């Protein structure tokens, strides 16, 4: 993002920070990234319950989610709204999805994101899915 942190509403903030499986810098652009657990610590959210945690991190979900589950960072979120990026599915991706289920989350809504749609002769497909989970 080419913007600074800002407050969008009474309880909505945007932070120019990437989410990853480890804290530091990432990629050739040296983006600042942190684990979800570290972000919660930095924002003093360690004892807060989140009504909604929305994550769209352009393929980094597959690296970040196992860390979020392992560290318990997801336990405070009532709803998890994710955009998943895929194409071919790996065993690790399936295990990650199963781990979300094991944490008590259930899918209540999903749809294909048309941004990355691929058009074939008689079919349209997208490798991107927005999936909304509710913790039961």
TrEMBL record:
Q: Which residues form the Methyltransferase domain?
A: 9-92
Against PANTHER family, the record matches this protein to: METHYLTRANSFERASE-LIKE PROTEIN 24, METHYLTRANSFERASE-LIKE PROTEIN 24-RELATED
Please give the name of this protein.
Methyltransferase domain-containing protein
Record lineage: Eukaryota, Metazoa, Spiralia, Lophotrochozoa, Mollusca
Origin: domain of life:
Eukaryota
